[in-house]
């Protein structure tokens, strides 16, 4: 066996796989999907075009995109029998917990991918991405005892998700805002949920298992839970005259300002710049307040941590945009799952195409091994 290799806590900086799905260049403030600038895609492409890029490897021409939209819209259906179970599923916990349960019940063929041809795996991956917005929206409505809103295949994923969740078709600007958010969050390096989905896939398990594991990892507050906290903060600040005193008191109390700082980026998070422009295009008092908060927060954080270069991260304007289009904060993490399912499934297909079981080691630090003859292994005493 190869000698054990100690790596940093949290595997920070460790390369654990090869991927051609996308990359994050933290110092340069750049991230891309298969070589295409993700912020540029958010400005110019549709969600479905980005989905095609991730799953099929290329940006589609107009005809291919039309077919892909039609084919994937046909997969956007609530599985038979699930509607009756929704009230029970919705009561099983917060939307992310319920989404796990719903996906498990959704009736996808649960055979290990090892038993499937590559085409069958790819088809399952598309179906899981198509199903996620349907299930997330239906769960949300079931919490209030409302029946699901049936999907509308004529709409794109973003607009239909908002319609299925809120019951109202968003106007073009709101639909586009959500679409830009979805595009910007489909993939982002080897984050915890992507790694988790690949670990599960590496065992040969069925694709739903990998999808559910991805949701489980994303549900933690250190990963997918922050944007609703930004809305709470803005609500708490309330008016523009309270921005500076609120932030100063908040930081003096040793608290962090939500939506600032990042583990990888030392520049402005490129996702933030796009979402700020999106929020500004919608406009209104909340956006004006957010712009003020950002300006003052950056000024204060710069004077407190001149070395850290704490900048605005994706969560700040993501929270603002999702709130402006009428999505409830409790649904923000599940909205993140709607987009990230695209990335997880692209990674799972990549893992399956050149699989090796992911099976690291741990350095044992517990009591020493109790020998059968009653003596203890050297090193440690109880
Ligand atoms: C995102 C985050 C977890 C990154 O953490 P990190 O790179 O590990 O940063 P560190 O925890 O090493 O922080 C370094 C210093 O900057 C401070 N800092 C980092 N982000 C801060 C923030 N948003 N507000 C105030 N201070 C912050 C820390 O308190 C720490 O100061 P200290 O050395 O005096 O304790 C962190 O910036 C944070 O908690 N941000 C707020 C929550 C948020 O927006 N999450 C969404 C992330 S996409």
Task: Tell me roughly what share of residues is in helical segments.
Answer: 40-55%
Low-confidence parts, pLDDT < 50 over ≥5 residues? none
Strand order of the largest sheet: 1-2-3
**What's the number of helices?**
16
Q: What gross morphology would you assign?
A: globular
Instruction: Describe the largest sheet.
Output: 3 strands, antiparallel
Listing every helix as H and every strand as E from the N terminus to the C terminus, the arrangement reads EEEHHHHHHHHHHHHHHHH
Average pLDDT: 93
Bound molecules: coenzyme A
Radius of gyration: 22 Å
β-strand number: 3
- Euclidean distance between termini CA atoms: 29 Å
Strand content: under 5%
SS-derived structural category: mainly alpha
Question: How are the elements arranged and paired?
Answer:
Elements: E1 22-25, E2 30-33, E3 36-37, H1 38-44, H2 47-56, H3 62-73, H4 82-90, H5 95-105, H6 118-143, H7 157-166, H8 172-184, H9 192-202, H10 207-218, H11 227-237, H12 243-252, H13 270-282, H14 285-304, H15 314-324, H16 332-353
Antiparallel strand pairs: 1-2, 2-3
The structure holds coenzyme A (COA).
Descriptive account of the structure:
There is one protein chain. With 382 residues, the chain is an all-alpha fold. It has helices spanning 38-44, 47-56, 62-73, 82-90, 95-105, 118-143, 157-166, 172-184, 192-202, 207-218, 227-237, 243-252, 270-282, 285-304, 314-324, 332-353; strands at 22-25, 30-33, 36-37. 54% of the residues lie in helices and 3% in strands. Strands 1-2-3 form a three-stranded antiparallel β-sheet. A hairpin with a 4-residue loop joins β1 (22-25) and β2 (30-33). α8 packs antiparallel against α13, α11 (227-237) packs across α15 and α12 crosses α14. It starts with 21 loop residues before the first strand and ends in a 29-residue tail after the last helix. The chain binds coenzyme A. Residues 226, 256-263, 305, 308, 310, 313-315 line the site of coenzyme A.
């Amino acid at each position: 066996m190869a000698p054990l290799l100690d790596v940093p806590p949290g595997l920070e900086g460790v390369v654990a796989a090869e991927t051609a799905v996308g990359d994050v260049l933290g110092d340069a403030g750049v991230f891309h999907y298969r070589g295409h600038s993700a912020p540029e895609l958010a400005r110019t492409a549709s969600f479905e075009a980005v989905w095609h890029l991730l799953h099929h490897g290329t940006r589609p021409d107009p005809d291919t995109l039309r077919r892909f939209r039609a084919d994937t819209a046909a997969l956007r259906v609530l599985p038979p029998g699930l509607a009756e179970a929704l009230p029970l599923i919705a009561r099983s916990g917060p939307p992310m917990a319920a989404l796990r349960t719903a996906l498990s019940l959704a009736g996808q063929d649960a055979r290990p991918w090892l038993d499937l041809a590559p085409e069958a795996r790819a088809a399952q991956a598309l179906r899981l991405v198509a199903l996620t917005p349907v299930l997330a929206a239906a769960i949300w409505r079931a919490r209030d005892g409302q029946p699901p809103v049936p999907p509308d295949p004529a709409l794109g994923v973003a607009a239909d998700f908002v319609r299925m969740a809120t019951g109202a078709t968003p106007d073009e600007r709101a639909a586009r805002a959500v679409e830009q958010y979805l595009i910007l969050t489909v993939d982002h390096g080897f984050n915890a949920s992507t790694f988790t989905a690949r670990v599960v896939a590496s065992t040969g398990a069925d694709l739903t298992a990998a999808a559910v594991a991805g949701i489980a990892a994303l549900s933690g507050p250190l990963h997918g839970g922050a944007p609703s906290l930004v809305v709470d903060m803005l609500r708490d600040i309330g008016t523009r005259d309270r921005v500076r005193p609120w932030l100063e008191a908040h930081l003096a109390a040793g608290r962090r300002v939500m939506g600032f700082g990042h583990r990888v980026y030392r520049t402005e998070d490129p996702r933030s710049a796009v979402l700020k422009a999106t929020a500004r295009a919608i406009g209104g008092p909340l956006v004006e307040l957010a712009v003020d908060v950002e300006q003052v927060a950056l000024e204060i954080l710069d004077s407190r941590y001149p070395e850290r270069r704490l900048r605005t991260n994706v969560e700040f304007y993501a929270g603002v945009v999702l709130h402006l289009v009428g999505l409830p904060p409790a649904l923000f993490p599940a909205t993140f799952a709607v987009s990230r399912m695209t990335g997880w499934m692209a990674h799972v297909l990549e893992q399956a195409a050149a699989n090796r079981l992911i099976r690291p080691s741990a350095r044992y630090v517990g009591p020493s091994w109790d020998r059968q003859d009653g003596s203890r292994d050297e090193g440690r005493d109880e």
